Amino acid sequence: MGHNQWLTSEEQRTWRAFLAANRLLMDQLGRQLQHDSGMPHPYYEILVRLSEVPGRELRMSQLATSSMSSRSRLSHAVAKMEEAGWVRRKECETDRRGAVCELTDAGFAALEDAAPGHVATVRENLFDQLTPEQVVQLGEISEAVVKHLGGDKLWPLGDRQS
Amino acid sequence: MGHNQWLTSEEQRTWRAFLAANRLLMDQLGRQLQHDSGMPHPYYEILVRLSEVPGRELRMSQLATSSMSSRSRLSHAVAKMEEAGWVRRKECETDRRGAVCELTDAGFAALEDAAPGHVATVRENLFDQLTPEQVVQLGEISEAVVKHLGGDKLWPLGDRQS
DNA sequence: CCTAACACATTGAGCGTTCAACTAATTCCG
DNA sequence: CGGAATTAGTTGAACGCTCAATGTGTTAGG
Q1: In chain A, what is the greatest distance between 2 CA atoms, to the nearest angstrom?
Q2: A95, A144, B68, B71: most buried by Cβ count inside 10 Å?
Q3: Which nucleotides of strand C lie under 7 Å from a protein CB?
Q4: How far is B93 from chain A (nearest CA, A)?
Q5: How far apart are alpha carbons B76 and B91 in whole angstroms?
Q6: At residue A28, what are phi and psi to the nearest 5 degrees?
């Protein structure tokens, strides 16, 4: 692994602030979404992915990686969301093992309902606290981490065309 | 709240990278800790706080805020860690409602066992991917978020003496 | 071909977290 | 002082996630 065994004091400081910021931010986001829209944050992310793709449907596998879920997590989540009527499972034409997950109109509507409050929370608690340069910096830092953790296959993050 | 309703495209990009980085990083950390040391990441953080304080004991309430737990979460967590023998509950002398949580020798040992692997994972997946300037930037960004989210009362984060 | 290895997706048990409800002690204030 | 509001901490049910195991379809290699 890296250089020494321990963190420098600058790294320590950063690490602790990072942990605190993340937990506070994510807790806040989750609370807001759950309270105002009755969905946990990961479900929201799944709906977003589906809503952005042509046909509003995706193979379970691609939906999993693009929403950073394990397959298992996604299965459970889709089961719940199917009960809620937000999503529908279909068989895959080209691979009989596969399943395709399709966003329903009700699901799209739920997403449209949830989005404004969610975005406002993100803005208030993150972007309103940062300078424009810091927004860029945070993006670069995050992309470096994602790149290392194999998130290559995530989506346009690398911003080549498409 | 903030300016407009939506995020700029730069903010969008940053936000998605940030979400991906966080989930990938935290999942990795949790997996490593659980696998190698049999504890979830939040428990590790609690042990760390206790280990750093004189007497290795803290009021439940302070332990909760300093580890960014809800009271309820901490109660459940301490119950589990008490079963594991890592921690012990004592009555509070000055407030009969209160409880004090004390780190046992076994708990300290468990922490010492877990630390090297954990730190190595943090280093490999975060700090080794960043330039020294980015480490500073991430610290500043995180502190801005923490400050807004009322993490004032967390701990020396604001780096006044103490 | 036909089997062995692999990939897709689901399932259930176990666990940690949340939320709301609750007990009990303390503080505030008229 | 004495009652109301606040604060400390716990509890149980509901729920999402992880992990390991399973079923089933696909691909590769002898």
Answers
A1: 55
A2: B68
A3: 7-13, 15-21, 24-27
A4: 30
A5: 17
A6: -60, -45
Closest CA to A106 of A41, A40, A154, A39: A39
Q: What is the pLDDT of residues A14-39, one digit of tens each?
A: 999 999 999 999 999 999 999 999 99
Complete edge-to-edge strand list for the sheet that includes strand B99-103: B57-59, B99-103, B87-91
Distance CA B103, CA B105 (A): 7
* Secondary element (H or E) of residue A100: strand A99-103
Distance A92 CA to C5 C1' (A): 23
Q: Which nucleotides of D are covered by protein (CB under 7 A)?
A: 7-13, 15-21, 23-27
Q: What is the DSSP letter of B3?
A: S
Sheet of strand A87-91, all strands in order from the earlier edge strand to the far edge: A57-59, A99-103, A87-91
Nearest chain A residue to B48, by CA: A16
**A7 is written with which tokens?**
């963190």
pTM listed for this prediction: 0.93
* Burial label, B152 (beta-carbon count in 10 A; 0-12, 13-18, 19+): exposed
Is A30's CB less than 7 Å from nucleic acid strand C? yes
Across chain B, which has 162 residues, the per-10-residue mean pLDDT values are: 77 97 98 98 98 98 97 98 98 96 98 98 98 98 95 56 31
pLDDT of A80-107, one tens digit each?
A: 999 999 999 999 999 999 999 999 999 9
